[in-house]
Design brief:
The protein is an alpha/beta fold. 37% of the residues lie in helices and 30% in strands. The chain has helices spanning 43-50, 73-81, 98-108, 113-126, 142-153, 172-188, 200-206, 224-229, 234-241, 246-254, 279-290, 320-332; strands at residues 2-12, 16-27, 32-36, 58-63, 66-67, 83-87, 160-164, 192-197, 209-214, 217-223, 266-274, 293-299, 302-304, 307-317, 336-342. Helix 3 (98-108) packs across helix 4 (113-126), helix 5 packs parallel to helix 6 (172-188) and helix 11 (279-290) packs antiparallel against helix 12. Bound molecules: adenosine-5'-diphosphate and magnesium ion (MG).
Length: 343
C-alpha cells in the first residue's frame, strides 16, 4: 500500500536540518503502522512525505505501487484523495459548523449538493456525532473536535489515513476513545493507517507494526509484538520502560520498602516470559517439584496482540540447592529468571 525507498528530506534554513535520512519502509494493506520517536526525530516530516506535503530530496514514495513524484497534477490530486490526514490540533475552520468542516473537501472537489449532504450525514454517524452537525468547533470538546477531523479526512473514501500525533492534545480517557474509533475504522473500512506519536501506549494499543525513529533515521522496526518483546536499541528500551511497571520494583528496593525486605534464605527474582508458555502452571509445578515457596508480590504483565508478555516479581524461599534447581528448571522451560536480591 505504501512503500518508501531511501527517502531523505533536508531543510535549508539558517541551519541545515536533515529531518529524514534514508528511510525505507513498507506498509501493507490494512496495517496500522506506528512511528514513534522523541520530539524533533523527524516523524512529522516523514509522514508528510507520504502524501507529498513535503517533497523528498531523494528516494521514492510509492502508493499502491505508483511513484507519486512522477504523477502529473491531476493524477497527484487523485492520489491525494486516497490519503486522508488528521492532526494534533485538529485544524478545523472555526467559522464553519461541524457539517461545514466535514463538507469542505467535497465542496473543494465540486461534488453536488445532494451528494455532499448524504456523505456528511454518513460521516457524522460513522464518528458518533449525529447531533452535532450545526455546532461550531468552539462548542466541542477536544475528542469531539478530533472526531470531526476524522470525519473530514474520510470524506472522499480514502484507503490510507495518516495520523500525526492525533491524540497528543487529549486526556488519557479521550485518547482511548479516539484510538478505539481509529481501530474500528481500520477494521470496518479496511483503512491502512500510519500513526505518528511520541507516546508508547498509543503504539501498544492500536498498532500492528512499529518503527522507532531517532535523528531522522528508523533505528528499529517490526511487528509491535517483536519490538516490545525483544527491543534492540536503547531508545526503544527507554520507550518501553515508560509504559511498564518494572522500574517500580527498583524504587521499592531503594526505599527499603517492607514488601521487598527478605529473610535469610529468601531471594527476590523476576520471571519474565513471552506468551508461549503458561507461567501459572510452571509456578505451581516448580513449587511442588522443588519444595520451594513462591510468593508473587508484583506483576507487570500486559497483553500485546493477544499474547501475554511481561514478568512477575517473586520472593522464593527454600533450601539453597532447591532454589538453584528451581531456577534452572524454570530457565529450561523458557522462562528468563533474574535474581534481583538475596536475603
Ligand atoms: N519546514 C521546516 N523548515 C525547517 N526545519 C524544519 C521544518 N520542519 C521541520 N523542521 C526540522 O526538522 C526536524 C524534524 O522535525 P519534525 O519532522 O517536526 O519532527 P517530529 O515530528 O518528530 O517532532 C526538526 O529539527 C525540525 O526543527
Ligand atoms: Mg511532529
Amino acid at each position: 500500500m505504501i512503500e518508501l525507498r531511501g527517502v531523505s528530506k533536508t531543510f535549508q534554513g539558517k541551519r541545515r536540518v536533515e529531518a529524514v535520512r534514508d528511510v525505507s519502509l513498507t506498509v501493507e494493506e490494512g496495517e496500522i503502522f506506528g512511528v514513534i520517536g522523541f520530539s524533533g526525530a523527524g516523524k512529522s516530516t516523514l509522514v508528510r512525505c507520504i502524501n507529498l506535503l513535503e517533497r523528498p530530496d531523494a528516494g521514492e514514495v510509492l502508493i499502491k505501487g505508483r511513484d507519486l513524484a512522477r504523477l502529473d497534477g491531476r493524477e497527484l490530486r487523485a492520489s491525494r484523495e486516497d490519503i486522508g490526514m488528521i492532526f494534533q490540533h485538529f485544524n478545523l475552520f472555526p467559522s464553519r459548523t461541524v457539517a461545514g468542516n466535514i463538507a469542505f473537501p467535497l465542496k473543494y472537489r465540486h461534488r453536488s449538493q445532494a451528494e455532499i449532504e448524504k456523505r456528511v450525514k454518513e460521516l457524522l454517524a460513522l464518528v458518533g456525532l449525529d447531533d452535532k452537525a450545526e455546532a461550531y468547533p468552539s462548542q466541542l470538546s477536544g475528542g469531539q473536535k478530533q472526531r470531526v477531523g476524522i470525519a473530514r479526512s474520510l470524506a472522499s473514501h480514502p484507503s490510507i489515513l495518516l495520523c500525526d500525533e492525533a491524540t497528543s492534545a487529549l486526556d488519557p480517557q479521550t485518547t482511548q476513545s479516539i484510538l478505539s474509533l481509529l481501530k474500528e475504522l481500520n477494521k470496518k473500512l479496511n483503512l491502512t493507517m500510519v500513526v505518528v506519536t511520541h507516546e508508547m501506549p498509543v503504539i501498544k494499543s492500536i498498532c500492528t507494526h512499529a518503527a522507532v525513529m531517532d535523528s531522522g533515521k528508523i533505528i528499529e522496526q517490526g511487528t509491535v509484538f517483536d519490538v516490545f518483546s525483544n527491543p534492540q536499541a536503547q531508545i526503544t528500551k527507554d520507550f518501553i520502560a515508560t509504559t511498564s511497571n518494572l522500574r517500580k520494583i527498583q524504587d521499592l528496593i531503594d526505599e527499603d520498602s517492607p514488601i521487598t525486605r527478605l529473610k535469610p534464605g529468601q531471594i527476590l527474582a523476576r520471571f519474565s516470559y513471552v506468551g508461549r508458555n503458561t507461567v501459572e502452571a510452571l509456578i505451581s509445578t516448580v513449587s511442588t517439584l522443588f519444595n520451594v515457596k513462591i510468593n508473587i508480590i508484583f506483576a507487570d504483565l500486559d497483553i500485546i496482540r493477544d499474547t501475554p508478555i511481561g514478568g512477575l516479581i517473586n520472593i522464593l524461599e527454600g533450601e539453597a540447592e532447591a532454589l538453584k534447581g528451581a531456577i534452572q528448571w524454570m530457565s529450561d522451560k523458557g522462562v528468563r529468571v533474574e535474581v534481583i536480591k538475596h536475603g
